[in-house]
Amino acid sequence: MNSADLLMVIAAVIVLGGLVYWTIRRSGSGRLGNGRQGTAFGGKPVKRPSSHQKCSRCKQMDKLTFYSNNQGTVMGLCKECRKKIGDRENLMPL
């Protein structure tokens, strides 16, 4: 067996190993079910969007209403902060 034949054998083993690895990763082997339930692309858990976000003023998690001022700055404010600010900042709802 010369060196060219040896290189061909090594290349074939590497290609076959890569195909086996790719097939196992793609099929989700070793997982319960089909391995795709509750996952996004790449098999990562799906993060559900929250209906609550941090208020721009007090930083507490709450439902927000978004407002814009005359300069175009957008703020998400909770009801309590909106009441505290009142009309002194000329906020317009989006």
In short:
This protein has helices at residues 3-27, 79-85, and strands spanning 53-54, 61-62, 65-68, 74-77, 92-93. With 94 residues, it is α+β, with helices and mostly antiparallel strands.
- Which percent range fits the helix content? 25-40%
Oligomeric form? single chain
Percentage of β-strand residues: 5-15%
Largest sheet: 3 strands, antiparallel
**Mean pLDDT level:** 80
Give the structural class.
Answer: alpha+beta
Say how many strands there are: 5
Stretches where pLDDT is under 50 for at least 5 consecutive residues are none
Q: Please write the string of helix (H) and strand (E) elements.
A: HEEEEHE
Could you give the order of strands across the largest sheet? 4-3-5
Give the overall shape, derived from the CA principal axes: rod-shaped
Distance between the termini: 76 Å
Q: Helical stretch count?
A: 2
Cα radius of gyration in angstroms = 28 Å
List keywords for this structure.
94 residues; alpha+beta; three-stranded antiparallel sheet; two-stranded antiparallel ribbon; 2 helices; 34% helix; 15% strand; rod-shaped
Q: Would you write up a description of this structure?
A:
By secondary structure, the chain is of the alpha+beta class. Helix content is 34%, strand content 15%. It has two helices and five strands. The protein has helices at 3-27, 79-85, and strands at residues 53-54, 61-62, 65-68, 74-77, 92-93. The strands form two sheets. The chain has a three-stranded antiparallel sheet. A two-stranded antiparallel sheet has the order 1-2. It is rod-shaped, with a radius of gyration of 28 Å. It starts with a helix and ends with a strand. The model has no long low-confidence stretch (mean pLDDT 80).
